[in-house]
Amino acid sequence: MTLQQTIAEYLKYTGQKGLDISAALIDCDGVLYDSMKYHTQAWVKLMKKNGIKCTRDEFYELEGMTGSEIIKMKFKQGAGKNITDDEARALYGVKTRYFTELGEAPVMPGAKRVLETLKDADVERVLVTGSQQDVLLERIEKDFPGLFGEVKVTGHDVRKGKPNPEPFLKGMAKSEKKPNQCIVIENAPLGVQAAHAAGCFTIGVTTGPIPEKDLYKAGADLVYKNMDELAAALPSLLVALSLVKA
Ligand code: CA
User: Fold this and answer.
1) C-alpha 27 – ligand 1 centre gap (Å)
2) How many other C-beta atoms are found inside a 10 Å radius of the C-beta of residue 159?
3) Which of 5, 58, 119, 160 stands 20 to 30 A from 41 (CA)?
4) pLDDT of res. 243
C-alpha cells in the first residue's frame, strides 16, 4: 500500500475530512528507551518470588497496561488471589526496585532524531505513558533536553491503562488537540490498540520481539522496524500527512 493509500484508509475509517498534524503523542518504554527487556525481567522476578509461573514474552503482550492492572490480573490468574489497591501499590514498588537494580536502560537509537525532526517541523511532542517509574520519567529531560514540553500524561494521570484509549484522550485534552491533529508513536500492541481507538494516526515501531503483523492487527496505520527507520522516513511522512489538510 502506498503512503497516500494508507492515509486515505485512515480518513475513511475515522470519517475525518483531512489531517492537520500538529502534535505527536509519544510512548516511553520501547520507544524512547530500550527498557522493555528490563521491565519483562523485573516482572518475571516479582511473579516467581510470589509463586506465579510466567514467561517474559507474556509481559511484552501486556505492555501498556498499568502496573496495578498487571499485578491484579496475574495474581488472580496465577494464584487465585484478589489483590487490593494497597497490595498492588506495594508489589509495584518491589517490581520498580528490581527494574532499577538492573541499571539504566539505554536510550533507544533513533529516538532523539525522531524528536528533533518533529520539533523542526513544529509538531508538539507530548509524552503519553502508563509508566509510573519516576526514575525513568526524570531521565527524559536529561536525555532529551528541550525536546518535550510541559504537557505529558503518565501512569499518575490515568485510571485505565492501554488498551483503553484514556491515556491518548488525556494527551489530546491536555494539549488541546483533536484526533486528526495527532500522530501516535507506539511499540506495543495494546498501546497501538489504544491509539487507534482514540482515533489518531498510529505509527508502530517493532523495537521488541513482537512482529510487525501484530501491530497492524492491533490497528497501526504504519509500522517501522525501529526508531532509526522512522527517523529516516519522518520528513517525507510529515509532508505527505500535511498534504491532506482538514
Ligand atoms: Ca511502550
Assistant:
1) 6
2) 11
3) 160
4) 82
* Cα 68 to averaged position of ligand 1 atoms, centre (Å): 16
Contact between residue 163 and residue 64 where contact means Cβ atoms under 8 Å apart: yes
Only one residue has cell 528541550, namely 146
Distance CA 187, CA 104 (A): 20
Calculate how far, in angstroms, residue 28's C-alpha sits from the geometric centre of ligand 1: 6
Whole-model pTM? 0.95
Strands (DSSP E) found in the chain:
23-26, 124-128, 152-153, 182-186, 201-205, 222-224
Low-confidence stretches of the chain (pLDDT beneath 70): 246
Among 139, 155, 158, smallest CA distance to 147 is for: 139
DSSP annotation of 152: E
* Measured CA distances, 141 to 96, 101, 136, 145 (Å): 20, 21, 10, 5
Q: Cell numbers at residue 38, please?
A: 528490563
